[in-house]
Amino acid sequence: MYVLVTGGAGFIGSHTVVELLQAGYEVVIIDNFSNSSPLVLSRIEEITGKRPLLIEGDIRDRALLDDVFKQHEIDAVVHFAGLKAVGESVQQPLEYYDNNVSGSVVLFEAMRDASVKRLVFSSSATVYGDPEEIPPVCQHRPEPLDFEITYKSGQSGAHYAKTSDTDRIQSGAESFLRKTHPSRVYARV
């Protein structure tokens, strides 16, 4: 089974790639290295003994995505490609919209056309804010302002995936609070 991991060279993406490889999946990474380094591939290989296929590029490049889906039998997509700094997103809303929303739509359209129906859509733990105490994520409600900022984008992606004949969408892959988990593991698949 081939899994495409967008943003797979980033922190959360690379940890997910390690888990996928160790679980026996074939992994294809698409990353534009806007917030990561190609050096992560060597580290993934050191940990797993396997080097995932890397395609340097941007999820907004529809021709690239079409080629990836044609050349590889992708069964599922784990979508981590996105800008993530809340403060910066307020200063540069159009750049964030273009990258995060438009990029996701391009990806979802390419998935639809390639009949790929399995998607893990990762959100941000930022919607939960800083907890007063350390409860499980599911018991801590999102802060209204942060939630409002990210909710509409997530809903748009979920609606698009639903209307695009997508089997399943998992908003915010199973995650751990970034400041509390001792191993600094941020997500697992």
TrEMBL record:
GO terms for cellular component: cytosol. Keywords: Carbohydrate metabolism, Galactose metabolism, Isomerase, NAD. InterPro entries: Epimerase_deHydtase, NAD(P)-bd_dom_sf. It is an enzyme of class 5 (isomerase). Pfam families: Epimerase. It catalyses: UDP-alpha-D-glucose = UDP-alpha-D-galactose. Its cofactor is NAD(+). Its EC number is 5.1.3.2. GO terms for biological process: galactose metabolic process. Residues 3-140 form the NAD-dependent epimerase/dehydratase domain. Pathway: Carbohydrate metabolism; galactose metabolism. GO terms for molecular function: UDP-glucose 4-epimerase activity. Belongs to the NAD(P)-dependent epimerase/dehydratase family. This is UDP-glucose 4-epimerase. It comes from Oligella ureolytica.
